[in-house]
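> call design_seq(struct)
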């Protein structure tokens, strides 16, 4: 029986489902509720008290940082753990989130293990006590519970300061255009894929990559970084929809990867539209 309540906030239903599934499988004492943006989350939080908030940064109507600012002004949420889950990993955004009261920061795309460790870290003994009361052992069958005892007895890491280095996607590079060819680096939880954009629209992007790289699995999370043309960066969340050999032979040197976008933020769709227009113009 669930004893703790968590609120999952993200404009992409695919991401919300991933977070909820991880919590359900690894932390059965936590009941999850979800919201598609900060405004909806604010409404839910005003009616129900949650023990944990897991929230995206970029969302329509009310962003994650705005929700965090409001939350820390509410007496019942002054000390509630808040995990910012976002594709923004640059130093300025990490510092801003920490200053506003974020308990932890998790970059997209994330693995179930990475998410579990963050939850264990911010929930601490509250989670341990709930597991004990339910008759569950923190040394249970899942990897998250096996790791929890060590994590809870480790010295707590200091909150990042302005002088500390932020977590950043290793090897990530935005999609850029060279002549008529658009290069792209697509981030996954454990790797970054260097590729060439073959086609893109408001729904998905298809890229070609050399076979000698580490490839993701079907339905794995992905983040596609693109330059919008005005010096700004758009980070588009998606998942692997299709993997296919380019040549009809087993020893093909190239693989086609299709990433389907899941963001519903109008600003991100506007940025994507500008990139698509530039891509189409470059193909003429």
């Amino acid at each position: 029986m669930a004893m703790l309540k968590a609120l999952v906030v993200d404009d992409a239903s695919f991401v919300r489902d991933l977070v909820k599934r991880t919590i359900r499988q690894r932390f059965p004492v936590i009941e999850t509720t979800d919201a598609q943006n900060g405004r909806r989350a604010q409404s839910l939080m005003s009616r129900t008290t949650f023990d944990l908030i897991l929230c995206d940064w970029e969302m329509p109507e009310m962003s994650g940082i705005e929700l965090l600012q409001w939350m820390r002004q509410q007496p019942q949420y002054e000390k509630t753990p808040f995990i910012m889950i976002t594709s923004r990993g640059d130093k300025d955004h990490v510092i801003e989130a920490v200053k506003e009261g974020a308990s932890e920061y998790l970059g997209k795309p994330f693995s179930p293990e990475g998410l579990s460790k963050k939850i264990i870290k911010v929930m601490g003994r509250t989670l341990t006590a709930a597991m004990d009361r339910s008759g569950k052992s923190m040394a249970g069958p899942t990897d998250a519970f096996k790791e929890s005892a060590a994590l809870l007895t480790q010295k707590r890491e200091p909150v990042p300061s302005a002088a500390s280095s932020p977590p950043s996607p290793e090897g990530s590079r935005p999609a850029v255009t060279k002549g008529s060819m658009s290069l792209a680096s697509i981030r996954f939880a454990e790797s970054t894929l260097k590729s060439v954009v073959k086609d893109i629209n408001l729904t998905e992007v298809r890229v070609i990559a050399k076979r000698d790289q580490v490839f993701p699995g079907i339905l794995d999370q992905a983040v596609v970084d693109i330059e919008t043309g005005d010096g700004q960066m758009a980070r588009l969340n998606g998942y692997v929809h299709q993997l296919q050999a380019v040549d009809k032979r087993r020893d093909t040197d190239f693989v086609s990867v299709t990433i389907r976008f899941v963001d519903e933020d109008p600003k991100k769709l506007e940025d994507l539209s500008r990139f698509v227009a530039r891509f189409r113009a470059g193909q003429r």
